[in-house]
Amino acid sequence: xxxxxxxxxxxxxxxxxxxxxxxxxxxxxxxxxxxxxxxxxxxxxxxxxxxxxxxxxxxxxxxxxxxxxxxxxxxxxxxxxxxxxxxxxxxxxxxxxxxxxxxxxxxxxxxxxxxxxxxxxxxxxxxxxx
Length: 130
Hints:
Elements: H1 8-16, E1 32-35, E2 41-43, H2 44-58, H3 64-68, E3 83-86, E4 94-99, E5 105-113, E6 119-123, E7 125-128
Antiparallel strand pairs: 1-2, 1-7, 3-4, 4-5, 5-6
Organism: Blumeria graminis f. sp. tritici
Keywords: Signal
Protein name: BgtE-20072-2
């Protein structure tokens, strides 16, 4: 009978290896809202209105934008590809609704600028309203 041992390096790697947690996805059958680090709060109705606008008036006519707006900054607990689109127009930091092509809202993220000039996306926190 052989016993296997784990070397010190392997043990260290297992301990310090990063864990990628999946962001929670709200249940579309319930009312919810998202509160963002920017101070903005968005209800399900406002988010759904924006998602319907994008999926009905932009993606069907400009399919090249689907890959442009593909969102890969966070992992979500759904198997579909997700996209992001700003909740407001114009320059500056924005909050983005994150959704799939079937109008499912999976999250909201705030884009803030770091001192180095890089874009940083921060997830917004969702809560159920009832």
